[in-house]
Amino acid sequence: MLTNDQLAQWDRESFFHPSTHLGQFARGEAPQRIVTGGEGVYITDRDGNRLLDGFAGLYCVNVGYGRREVTDAIAKQAGELSYYHAYVGHGTEASITLSKMVMDRAPEGMSKVYFGLGGSDANETNIKLVWYYNNIRGLPKKKKIISRWRGYHGSGLMSGSLTGLELFHKKFDLPLDGVLHTEAPYFYRRPEADMSEGDFTKWLLAKLEELIQREDPDTIAAFIGEPVLGTGGIVPPPVGYWEGVQEILRKYDIVLIADEVVTGFGRLGTMFGSQHYGLQPDLITIAKGLTSAYAPLSGSIVGNKMWQVLMQGTDENGPIGHGWTYSAHPIGAAAGVANLKLIDDLNMVENAGKVGAYLRRAMADAVGDHPNVGEIRGEGMLCAVELTSDRSTRAGFSPVGSVAGKVVGEMVKRGVISRAMPQGDILGFAPPLCLTEGEADQIARVTAEALREVL
Ligand code: PMP
Hints:
Elements: H1 4-14, H2 22-26, E1 35-39, E2 42-45, E3 50-53, H3 56-59, H4 68-80, H5 93-105, E4 110-116, H6 119-136, E5 144-148, H7 157-162, E6 179-182, H8 197-215, E7 220-225, H9 241-251, E8 255-259, H10 273-277, E9 283-286, E10 298-303, H11 304-317, H12 330-345, H13 348-367, E11 373-378, E12 383-387, H14 402-413, E13 416-417, E14 419-421, E15 426-429, H15 437-454
Parallel strand pairs: 3-13, 5-6, 5-7, 7-8, 8-9
Antiparallel strand pairs: 1-2, 2-3, 4-10, 9-10, 11-12, 12-15, 14-15
Helix pairs in contact: 4-12, 5-12, 6-11, 8-9, 13-15, 14-15
Bound molecules: 4'-deoxy-4'-aminopyridoxal-5'-phosphate.
Keywords: Aminotransferase, Pyridoxal phosphate, Transferase
Cofactor: pyridoxal 5'-phosphate
Family: Belongs to the class-III pyridoxal-phosphate-dependent aminotransferase family.
């Protein structure tokens, strides 16, 4: 067996890690963890640590690690047929069954699901479908996409442009032309301290409408948003936000894309975030929770209205010129079928709502009075602790992110994984949906210990 030192050396020499400080890592100055196993909400590593994964990987291992129901389904599928493509009408029992299961769970008004590999490529698909849709409708000028600052939609050329975080644009010449960003629905960072939540919503809606008018509504094709901002800080929207946004989009004939990569399949305590907030999207992006990351798979769920136009388009122009080799990969599809079944069998959607609320209460009890805790927020099995250097002014720390990074480091030493969210000092929690109250207590207790250590 390879020694830890050997692996660590190969890792530094050969492995280009995503979202990693390349120089620091290569020089051995950045954290390195070689993960070996997972069971329930815990992972283990080569150094002998057993860690409670308070972020479910990257908020994706929704059913928890080591589920035999899913791994057996993968093994069976791999043995019978590890691959066949889905082009020109080909399918497998797994991919067809999963389509049916996804559509049975999807919000009303949706028609079909297209499968991809990850959230980024699903959003690339979505934007292509929006452009195709408007071309078929005879609206070739209507192509611009509105996203939000602090939104996260992936890191491809288009999906990275949609993402509204500076790090994903800087030095990559992004965003691409035709992608516009509007204000983040982030009440804690409202422009004026004395603004009520309702007034903040009105301000956001006015900003959105201003942008549409300034750019010319006839050039705006779609609006993309996560029901709850995820990577941008785990921020539920202010009251009335989605109703107001949808009203504006309808007024200007703008497509709504609900990016449910994080919120899909139970994370908010409802099957989809769209159901939670009363969204009626034209397209829904899904990934992560679709297979609980047991295998890579994503999807674009297409609404009825758009589907009719896409069919008209292919009647006029031939087959849709869009496909990935691995679209609806049978192993991903088999994982998806077993995973969605497990979510139902173990009542995980309900558990996410119940234990998620418990986690926020436990967190409030443990750290709510801490002078550097500005806000504890979330929805379903999502929780964020916003840190501030001064509760009364809501001021941040300098440099931004330094304190949250240290707290996360102290938490890992105490056996709990959390995540420092970018562009702020925000501790993020998104545990597997099967979390128990006892495990929620452990997360809250360790957060309090780490905060005491750092601040
Ligand atoms: N959309 C959202 C809302 C996400 O959170 C993510 C990933 N964190 C993506 C899209 C991109 O997904 P992927 O990393 O699988 O490409």
